[in-house]
Every structure is written in C-alpha cells, then in structure tokens.
Amino acid sequence: MFTRRKGKVNIAGGHRTLLVVSVLVLLVMYVTFFLQPQNTFKVDWSSGFSQDASNPRRNYALESKQLAGQCLLKVDCPEDQLSFYIHSGAGNLIPPKMCLQNTVVLGAAKNNFGFGINIVIVDGRTGNVIKTDSFDMYAGEVQPLIAFLQSIEQGSVVLMASYDEPASKLTADARKLIADLGSSSIQSLNFRDSWVFVGGKGASVHNTFEKHIKNEHATNKYKDWPEMVEIQGCIPKFIP
Predict the structure, then answer these.
(1) What angle do CA 212, 146, 152 make, to 5 degrees?
(2) What is the structure's pLDDT at 68?
(3) Is the distance from CB of 119 to CB of 163 less than 8 angstroms?
C-alpha cells in the first residue's frame, strides 16, 4: 500500500511539473512570435530604405515594384489631349513619379529619377517622350540644368517634380528659363520645398499646372520636409 501511494504522488507531481513547463513554453512562444515582430518591423523600416547598392541615395524601398510600375490615379482625356499625373518626392525616401497617358515615364519603376529637379520632355504633337533627366540642386551644378532647358524645342510639353532638395543651386538664369515655360512658383522655390509643374515651350500648354508647398518646420508633414504634392489633368496637343 505504501509503495502504491508513493507511486501516485510521483505521478501527480509529474503532471504538475509538466503543466508548469508547458505554460512556460507557451509564454516563451508568445513573446517570440507575437511581440518580437513589432520590434523587428521597426528596425527593418528604418534601415531598409537603400536597395540600390550602386547608388544608396536612391531610397525607394517604401514603394514596391508593383505599385511603382502603375499609375494608380487613371486620368481620362479626349483624343486631342494628353493625360498626365505627377507627384513629387516625399522627403528623401519616396521618389517622384510621372505618368503620361496612364503610363509611368519617370520613377522607381524606370529607375530614371534623382535628387533635385526631375524633368520629362514630351513631344506636344505626338505625346512621345523625348528625354528625361534629373539635376541635383544641392550637391550638383546648375549649368547642366541650364543647358538642358535651353535645348527644349518649340512645341514641347515639360513636366517637373522635386525630390529632396530642388533649389539651393538655382540661379536667376535657371529660374527665368523655367518661368518662361509657364511656372509662377519657380521664383519663390526654396530649400526642400515640394513642387510639381507642367508647362511647355510655345503654344503646347495654354494653361499650366503647378503646386508648391513651402518647407516650414511648424507645418511640415515630415520633420525636415513638407508633404508630397501631386497634380493631374489633360494637356491639349500642340498644333503648329
């Protein structure tokens, strides 16, 4: 009888021990699989912006390849007009995007953007993209931008968007060339302002499109930058 009672006590104690161990295992699993991912996400979010090893300044991890390749705001225009959509960069993390006829012509999907002022030149007669480029107005020089603007031919549509810092190296000559395309905000564009513009050389754009938000610390959406700006619309084709 004594031996049987001792065996029963050991079995009961074993169950209690097993129960305690099971609870501890579940607690460890809960901490590992439910709480840890939040911390991991924060680390990945802050350190995963540079995905282009050849140019770490092209920080576009926040915009997936699928979204980067789409013009999510579709613009429908008459056959004799060109549809467009533009958004500026957001801070120095999300690059600008430009769409023409609901097709991306500049942005992460095309890998043809850069810090400063991004420009797309379009044939106002056909809607074909003539050339794209970007000009770093913080670490770069203004002369290549001036030469580019001077090369724009009559009847061209010009789309521009800021990314990070568009104004530090702008000179009076560069500002005048952009103003001649129809911009009214270029004269007041300053350090880290957000800016998008659609104009033209000649009669290709009768009514320009433009949006400009100043970099003001008290109202900035991002600490050192204002919010992203965007515009969309229809541009009449150029008729010589």
Answers:
(1) 85
(2) 54
(3) no
CA gap 133, 208 in Å, rounded: 21
Closest listed residue to residue 97, CA positions, set 120, 128, 122, 126: 120
CB-CB contact of 108 with 148 (8 Å): no
Structure token pair of residue 136: 């770093």
Report how far residue 18's alpha carbon sits from residue 237's, in angstroms, rounded to the nearest whole number.
79
Q: CA-CA distance, 106 to 149, in Å (whole number)?
A: 18
Closest by CA position to 156, among listed 118, 121, 197? 121
Tens-place pLDDT, residues 113-159:
999 999 999 999 999 999 999 999 999 999 999 999 999 999 999 99
Taking the C-alpha atoms of residue 173 and residue 143, their distance in angstroms, rounded to an integer, is: 10
**Strand partners for 211:** 196
Handedness of CA 212, 216, 222, 225 (dihedral sign): positive
Contact in structure between 216 and 237 (CB atoms under 8 Å) = no
Is there a contact between 135 and 101 (Cβ–Cβ < 8 Å)? no
Q: What is the model's pTM?
A: 0.71
Q: Which tokens is 134 given?
A: 């970007």
Per-residue buried b or exposed e for 173-207, using 16+ beta carbons within 10 Å of the residue's own CB: ebbebbeebbbebbeebeebbbbbbbbbbeebbee
What span, in angstroms and rounded, lies between the C-alpha atoms of 111 and 58?
9
Q: What is the residue whose two structure tokens read 């009768």?
A: 206
Taken as a whole, the chain contains a residue count of: 240
Q: How far apart are CA 60 and CA 10, in angstroms?
A: 62
d(CA 185, CA 169): 16
Most confident of 14-18, 20-24, 152-156: 152-156
